[in-house]
Prior knowledge:
17 strands, alpha/beta, five-stranded mixed beta sheet
Amino acid sequence: xxxxxxxxxxxxxxxxxxxxxxxxxxxxxxxxxxxxxxxxxxxxxxxxxxxxxxxxxxxxxxxxxxxxxxxxxxxxxxxxxxxxxxxxxxxxxxxxxxxxxxxxxxxxxxxxxxxxxxxxxxxxxxxxxxxxxxxxxxxxxxxxxxxxxxxxxxxxxxxxxxxxxxxxxxxxxxxxxxxxxxxxxxxxxxxxxxxxxxxxxxxxxxxxxxxxxxxxxxxxxxxxxxxxxxxxxxxxxxxxxxxxxxxxxxxxxxxxxxxxxxxxxxxxxxxxxxxxxxxxxxxxxxxxxxxxxxxxxxxxxxxxxx
Length: 306
């Protein structure tokens, strides 16, 4: 009996040791205040975060990506399509019967995974966008590496063949473009920096600002080759200037809602990094993290004065 108990205890401890730290922190308490919408696919969690706005959350992968379905009276806009690990289109089909336009906050693989399932996709007119529309296997495989998954992958998912599938751009949009959904208009705001094609969306009438990866309440990635720190600095200042006009900021990872006061604080935090006032903390593969108050930035080494 002692041997059996010891074996069971070892197995339990071994399983616990394999749980990533980010997974141990789930569920995030902020979600308790949001209205959850039932979905039949356990890979996703869906929340109604504002009238006609659904946050589609993927809590079982380390990115904790959030896509947004924004519904008008004539059509809907899907701001990002997530990882492509499970079937996002089945989720959106249950949320609305209106035709859906896809627009990506930027074209990193964790935001375009199910683009291929939709007929109408708007994109920024950049070479970075066109390159990513061709798909990627390496970036997708990195998303399911050890430590990246919390719990089980969806039934029928084949990790060996997982890749971001190619998708077609239906039309190009630009800074200032307005997308009419019927009773609702969204303004495109170019916010390059994280990537060359990064954008935010402003729903001025409803005072909502969708920020993609320019702001989200976790460590903000600013280390990849396509990152432009000067452009990022200008973009967050542009968003901060909008703070008095909005009541809700909706980022693309971890937690879907934040107060607009977070935007000027983000500018102040990044200023401290830019001016060399924050010492870097070494991270993996030559990267460093800068911590400033509630914000943190993952950047390339030797970038203390961007």
